[in-house]
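Practice problem: Glycogen synthase
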Amino acid sequence: MKVLFVCAEVAPFSAVGGLAQVAYFLPKALKEAGVDIRVFTPKYGIISSNLLRVENVLEGLKVPTGEAQKIICNVKVLKSPKKEDPIIYFLENMEYYEQRANVYNYSDDHIRFGLLSRAALEFVRQGDFVPDIIHVNDWHTGYLPNYLQTDYKNDKKLQEIATVFSIHNLHQGVFDFDHASEMDYDDGKGPLASFFSERFLKQNSLKRGIIHAHLINTVSQTYSRELLTEEYAPRLYKLFRELRGKFYGVLNGLDYQNFDPKKDKIIKSNYSTNNLSSREENKVDLQKEFNLEVSQHTPLLAIVGRLDDQKGLDLVMETIEFILAECNVQLVVCGPADNKHRDFFSDLEKQHPGIVGTHLMFDATLPRKIFAGADIILMPSKYEPGGIVALEALRYGCVPIVRATGGLADSVVDYDPTLSTGTGFSFKNYSAMSFLATVIRALETYKNKPVWKKIIKRAMDQDFSWDKSAKKYIDLYRRSQLICIG
Ligand code: GLC
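Answer key — structure tokens:
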């Protein structure tokens, strides 16, 4: 089985969020399972040059734009990649990728990712790798199934390629589709306009990917059900309902080799469920790293990952002063933050020196030290398609407090004292009161050391490995082929 995996971000080259983790670890697991999978992604200017030793595979790839003018790109490949890694193709273009300092947030992102989508198809058309399946991800590459079904419909080489579209997020790109006037409504059907036209900006690639892909999935079972409701997908739930027959949920995974507290070189002290006391050294190390008072018995709470509204941080903002005043806890916060959250958490740190510590930007290693040293991770997300941070925390025995939504509902089991089951604490209602009550419930449980230890052990014993999810993707690939040949 041959697969081309097209994605706007890929770890470790252009890691913005969980999407990049998936784009590295899922293909790796699929390769291990015997799939000839190759990744196709832009060569952004920000990719560190020591990661990027590349050579040409296709020079002067001409990509049609819908007008007479074509965009000329090169396709490069990583020289001598690690044996276990899939081949990664980098799409090279000065104007749209190399000269930009960031991965996202440009007014012409629709052109930049329209280009990625169309270039991937041209690469297949003009090159020697003809996949059975093209797997695309999020709005950036939702254009691709659309092109395949319209502009490339009669192309002999591409005709039998099936497409799978994974939804990691309902973001829909540059244009504000949620508040569009009736005149700008896009029914999602028909051919895509020229890259440079106003109409192209207003063509909804997420919707078009959903309509045109042979099969769609999102990154947890629960989120796939939530997307059928008006609450979670106000403008798309009817479409999801209509296309239910080709819509699946596959929970994201974790690379258990790479994320392993027994072997992880980043953390101070390695540990397993048999020697949990070694975990305590990591707590001290973490407290020092964030300039917190060193104290073994103070519960250390943590927030890790993208810090924006999706993550339900308003619930934390409403309750944290009370928690700090009444509960004798410490807090560390780590991840790229939008302005609102950066201001809030840096003020909080100033007001509570030695008790609150922050690192409000992306960091490749700190999260692991946090998972290994903190007692509790807070994830009260408003919505959470997958939620890889929860899987990472479980693996390291950092007990999650989550809102039972999306992938969090599928990965964290609420602690039940009568049955002695559970790997964390969860609540359903999106309210500050429910969140606070759950934090207090967790902190009360924390006081009972033997019980807490058992929760940690159960958390660490879970198996959310990528190989499990990879098998499910192989199954989806097969189904998409059946749908494709009709
Ligand atoms: C997005 C989602 C997150 C998911 C990730 C990878 O970032 O918000 O829940 O885990 O994509 O699929």
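Discussion: The mean pLDDT is 96. Students who identified this feature from the tokens alone can consider the problem solved.
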